[in-house]
Amino acid sequence: MQIPKPQTGVILALLAIGGCANFSRDGGFDPVAQATRAHLGKQILWPRTDGERARSGAQVAEILSRPLSIDDAVQVALLNNRELQAAFEQLGVSEADLVQAGRLPNPRFDFRHAGAAGQYDIEESVSFNVVSLLTMSYRRDIEQRRFAQTQAGLEQRVLALARETRSAYVAAVAARESAAYHEQVSSAATAGAELARRMVSAGNWNRIDQARERAFELESQQGVERARYIEIASREKLIRLLSLPNASGADTPLHLADRLPELPTAIEALPDVEQYVLESRVDLQIQRLRLDELARSLDLTHSTRFLNVLEAGPTRIKQGPAGAAYESGFVLSFEVPIFDSGAARLKRAEAIYAQALDAFAQAAIDARSQIRQAYASYRAAHKLAIQQRDEILPLRKSVADQNLLRYNASLISIFELLSGARDQAAGVDDYIQSARGFWIAKSEFEASLLGDPGDSRTTTW
């Protein structure tokens, strides 16, 4: 089809504008990786080739070759968790929408042909969506903000995975320690029950006291089974977070530390809550980006309220015999806003924006409260764990030592000595649980500074 030269220049300019949007080199991943390094001091990768996957796998294998620390576990999860890797693919989806928003829709070609008795009626036209051209900057700004929301959402996913991995690691190590101490208690209970049986057989003891020792033996055996299950369950949860398909096999070993880290002598002071809420909370950053997106969408709705369909382009028409000349002109198509003035669309956009504004205000209030509550839990857990370690455990050890002296002096029976030893072992297990609660509370507090830590209405200690 021949198009007049002035119109050809306009079309070429439109095509140039529509083809300027391209995909980025990193797919929008680099800002997410930089934010992870800033918040966690850890590396994340998005391997998209076999070579990149091999390098990531080698890095994970190197970390797993040694006993895992809590920081090692977080790094393995960030490199190896397949759910996180799947989440990174959302960047591709969002960037595709961004690129698409920067491109004009394809022109439409219409052709009509009719003829009879050597007379023809031919019409050819090319039309373009003019509204799309006029609103391209709006649509691209909106998608740019949505893309930024996707990036911030991935930052939040990374932070959530790190928090969950820290808690799972602490729970797994604590469960391992606890199971060991439950086995010690069970061994002492078994020894006491056996001694009671022999003394009853010799006529030196009564069956009521023997029944008590036997009941305690059975209860301690049940405690061992529960502790072993908790150890397995905690370990398996950590394995899932690390995405290790066969953690018991030789190819992917999982060596945990023998015990939890030592408690710090003091904890840091509560930081400036307002500063963290305004600068560091990723969930609030996402909501701010959402507000910006909705504000821009509201502007677009205002701009296209009365006219949201407008197409124009060149056309030529032939009416007459085959040798007749074409008549050139243009075609214009638009909606006449008689029945729908766009008021409903505008009202809906305004309501959505007002709704998001109220939700953001409440989220800011919630964020301040979450930080204060998480810090209170962190401080209380530290105080309890320190008291358990520095006061209660020494007292129970002192009682056990005194019982041993009294037993050697024949002042108490062997059963009273065993009972004191059981109490001391139980006290050690109480300390393990207190230390576990402290490290989890610490993780929850640090998470609250960067984003929503989840449901923190129940304490972990």
Topology:
Elements: H1 5-18, H2 30-40, H3 50-64, H4 70-80, H5 82-101, E1 108-116, E2 119-129, H6 130-134, H7 136-201, H8 207-242, H9 273-279, H10 282-303, E3 310-320, E4 327-334, H11 343-408, H12 414-450
Antiparallel strand pairs: 1-2, 2-3, 3-4
Helix pairs in contact: 2-7, 3-4, 4-7, 5-7, 7-8, 7-10, 7-12, 9-11, 10-11, 11-12
Describe this structure in words.
The chain is an alpha+beta fold and 461 residues long. It has a single domain, classed as Outer membrane efflux proteins (OEP) (Up-down Bundle). Helices cover 67% and strands 8% of the residues. The protein contains 12 helices and 4 strands; from the N terminus they run αααααββαααααββαα. It has helices at residues 5-18, 30-40, 50-64, 70-80, 82-101, 130-134, 136-201, 207-242, 273-279, 282-303, 343-408, 414-450, and strands at residues 108-116, 119-129, 310-320, 327-334. A 4-stranded antiparallel sheet has the order 1-2-3-4. Helix 7 packs antiparallel against helix 8 (207-242) and helix 9 (273-279) packs across helix 11. The termini are far apart.
